[in-house]
Structure formats: C-alpha cells, structure tokens
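Hello Y.,

Per our agreement to keep a running log of every chain we model this quarter, I'm adding this entry. I've kept the format consistent with earlier entries: sequence first, then predicted structure.
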Amino acid sequence: MKKSPNIFKPAGSPHKSWLPFIPAAAILLIWQLLNISGIIPPYMLPGPLQVLAAFAGDFQLLMRHLLYTLLEALSGLAIAVTAAFVLAIIMDANRFIKQSVTPILLLTQTMPVIAVAPLLILWMGYGIAPKIMLVFLTCFFPVTIGLLGAFASADNDALRMLQSMGAKKRQLYFYIKIPQGLPAFFSGLKIAGSYSIIGAVIAEWLGGDAGLGVYMIRVRRSYSFDKMFAVIILVSALSLLLIKLVSLIEKAAMPYRKGITENHG
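Predicted structure for the entry above:
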C-alpha cells in the first residue's frame, strides 16, 4: 500500500541550512577571543582577522601559486583515476592478476609519502613531473580499491541473466558492473580529490619554484605565521570545493539515486 504524503509536514525549515555553519562560526569566535585576550601570543596563533588581512595582502601572489598547485593536483588526479579504472577492470576480470597486484597496491600505501617524495625529485628533477607522480601515488589507491570492491559485489543474478543471453564480458561491465560500481567510484574519488591538493603541497615542500607548498616554506622561514594559516585555510577550502564538485558530478551521473533516496527516506 502506497504511503500517503503528510500534508501537515513542513516543506522545510530555512534555518536548518545554517546548522552546519554554527560549529565553524563558534570556533572562529573562540579563536578570535583567544587572540584578543592574549592568552595565546599572536605570533604563535594569529587571529582570524589577521589571517584574513594576510590573505588579502598576498592575494595575487597566492593565486599565482594556487594555479601551479591546481595544475599538479588535477593532472595527477586525472591520471590516477584513469589508471585506477583500467587496472580495476583488469584485476576484476583476471583472478591471477588480482592476486598478484593486490599486495603491490597495499605496499604502496605502507610507504610514507614524505619519504617517497625525495626519491621522486632525485629521479625526475625539480620540475612538475615528480609532483604529479606523487599526487598519482596518493590518489590511485582509494579509487582502485573502491572500484574493486564494487565490481566484486555486483548483482550475480543480473550477471548470470546477461550471460545466459550471450552477453560478452565487456557487456557485463557496461550494463551491470560499472553502473553498480559508480557509487563506490565517486566515494573513492571524493577521498582522492581531497588527497590530491595535500599531495601536491607536500611535494612542493621538498623543492620547486612555485606552488602553495613553496609559498608555505618561504613564509615559514620569515616567521609570517598569519600567512601560513592563510595557506592552510586555502588548502582546506580547495579540498572541500573538490569534494563538492565531485558530489555535483555524481548527482549528474546518477540522477536516479536521488529518487531512490527520497523513496527510502
């Protein structure tokens, strides 16, 4: 029996959209009060207003460094996602390759990124190539593992039905495994998107002429901690924007999930 809609239920409360911002606003207020009161010296913890002033003062310089970091992050992310998609399909289709490659994938995650970066710079120089490679290594694992898990949990009944109709292996992926694996893919992509910015900044710490990581090293040496905080907040905001962008792409790619969620809600 179909559930009748509740006409007395309010359509939505406008104030609820502000609820996620209340904790952030409280943290900023406490942060500013600590700065004004002098409990923590300003040179150790500059207040939000000082950080905002530092961001505005170096805005053009930050944007130039930002473009370089974004180029590294998005290039590495794009290569990682493409390689992860191809490798996940190959590993899922061939059990021997899956058993052989899985330990190598796990091994790449046990190595600290900060320890691998100097080797990449030694092998590839101080240009953009080692930064892109480090972003690739950072982002590749979550997307690959997410896709492998999704492919392994695909609907067996639907797969058997297509096989009984004479479907080829690529058709099984096109019609069943890839569509059912999209939620896991986008979940991994959100993680990889946030990692890509962080990976690029870490790579820039160890050498280079441009990028937010290079900017952070320079302002740290001059003890400009207000500018350091400005970059940290900028990197966090970029990661959140990338996650939001992936969410929008996910909604566009899977509009049917909204209806499913509303029906279950």
